[in-house]
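Hello,

Following up on my earlier ticket. Below are the two sequence lines again, exactly as submitted.
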Amino acid sequence: MSPPQAPAYQLSDGPGQSATLSLSGDWAQGQEPVDFRDLRPELVALAPRQLLVDGDALGRWDSLLMAFLLQCHNYCRAEGIELDVSPLPESARQLLRVATTVPPHERPREPRPGLLQRLNPLRAARGALRDIAESMAFLGDLGIALLNLCRGRSNTRFTDFRHFCYQSGPDAFAIISLTSVLVGMILAYLGAVQLKLFGAEIYVANLVVIGMLREMGVLMTAVVMAGRTGAAYAAQLGTMQTNEEIDAITTMGVSPMEFLVVPRVLALVITLPLLTIYADLLGVLGGAIVAGGMGITLLQYVSQIEQAISMTHLLVGLSKSVVFAVLIAIAGCRSGIQSGRGSAAVGNAATEAVVTALIYLIVADAAINILFQHLEI
Amino acid sequence: MASSEAHISVRGVTMAYGARVIQQGLNFDVNRGDIFVIMGGSGCGKSTLLKHMLGLIEPAAGEILYDGQSFTRADTATRDAMRRRWGITYQSGGLFSAMTLGENVSLPLQLYTDYSRAEVTEVVAYKLALVGLGGYESYYPSEVSGGMRKRAALSRAIALDPQILFFDEPSAGLDPISSRLLDELIVQIKESMGATVVMVTHELPSIFGIATNSVYLDAASKTMIACGDPRQLRDHSDQPVVRQFLAREAAAEPEAEA
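Thanks for your patience. The regenerated structure is below:
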């Protein structure tokens, strides 16, 4: 094989208004390539009516030559120059013919909002309003589907419900155990330092039990479930959307709301309160470990808890858990069902599900706390 | 080994998922410059055979050679080097949905060539123009039709000027005209690049239109029962199943379905 030669071209004036473009060297990968933008001013200066491309001195060539030729072709077509490539090798001519059969597509210009328009607060507010309206519509659809379920005219399948209960309940025990024991311990440590100043360490038990039951048990469980189950719902439904499974369900005359969303929502409404009770218990246990380290005996701790605990605290936590369950399930299912098609869209849907669920959770928690404060519960 | 001889050799390959044997005793050669079709009824293991040839699944027995060099026994580095000379399209395209068509085609160029950014852009424009998608660089796969996705996948497959092109059902789901245009495109690209083509298909017009060599996998006997030019096989195969398949006839004997 001869040593590789750098690719080069020479543009020479010919008789009449014609010009010849002589190509030489190896137009292949590994060589310093030629840029068509260098040739363009020469062509403009010469302004030929006909351009003959001569490849007698052409060595090896690959797509780099073809990319160059295609640019020549496009330039010549735009300028009305007649391009003659007949001296080139047969396969190169054939490739150029294939590449130029279909004229290049020009993307229609879509009006893109300008910076000023995008920053317009009215526009943002409209977007937010539309988002809220869509959420309300989704909630309404869900309400209708639940009503149908109550009237016994629903296509919700009990097997699905059972499956989702298992998925969102027992499967989550390990992570809920870990987080709630630790949250219980954190609460105890937090209180211990402050209460010690007043010699009131024993009230750590009150802090832990009220804190867990009313607030931390349910909130931590909900946050974990938003990341775990909410994201899973969005990913499942998004993939079903991608695979046209949701289209298939719709055309079977079955409401995706009844078939897909209702069992998921109900499963979470059943399992989240149960997980919350479990988390409360383990949180109190975690508090006991810290209290033990501070010299409070288990008996003292338990008797203190007996005084502090009340049904109200438990019910506050449980009522929150039901609200949170509905919010997590709605955020997950809505993102999933409204997901676009393709892997990137499913990823976005899962992200959106978790982010929305977390926002819903915090806002709802604050609202419920303010409400209960005013009701003096 | 002379260049007119076997480009790909499959030697005594057995394909199995665990204990379930899909096909066994596969022995055939794909010659340089062939358009080689892997055919057979649904579920006979066509796509599985292609995945074996690509090294996505390891054969339970036997080996596959490229240019006389064993791919099955090669280490990862050698395999990657061999794979760089291949272009592959998958059944549903395999385009990255998070990237535009232009980015899809430029990815192999950015990974395996030392082209500058401007050259990559030019080569991408050329590769997309080859499949009739010039100007579609900024579109996402979800914004174009199924036929365009198939062609874009072809464009990505030929980005590195491969020596072997693998297609898994290239024209499945396309209308007859698009399907024929895609077939012609494959032939033109293959001839001007001097590549070897291996494709899985059961589209008879494609098989008779462009294939020069083929293998027929039988689901019942779990082995290949015919090999050669499909037009020859249709008229002269000693296997009635193969003749029926290629002539698009219902099976004469009901036990053929078993």
